[in-house]
Write the structure tokens for this entry.
Amino acid sequence: MNKREMSAILAGASAEEVEAAAAGIRDNCEIEILKKPQKTLVMVKVRESVKRSLFYLGEVLATECMVTVNGAKGASVMAGDNFEKCINAAIIDGFMNTEKMPECGILEEKRESLRGEIKRLGEKQKNDREKLNRQIRKSQVNFNVMGE
């Protein structure tokens, strides 16, 4: 799982789910907040579907935060203004970055366990999306059939 996939799953998870994933890290690691969570505006870039050109749709309110976990930096930018969710996501990112620091003594099993937990969250989100899409498709109107 790469950072992009992990970030997308954490962004789609509830604050409680992200907090539960970060709880073990908070208990066992040294965490320092480098940049306290703060609100910011982020431009949303969208690709137009016909000409495939990029344009800016507008701004969205986001929260950004930066921490260190046992000396490894972790950062998070999340849509919305949930400070705790942003801190916990940054802690998870910092913990995953400790892979590059073998002297920390953090066991690979803990990282694999966290990856598994995040993958389970991703599967849950996927199943919820599929369920919602099935419900929406039931009410879909086919205008070609209506004209006959």
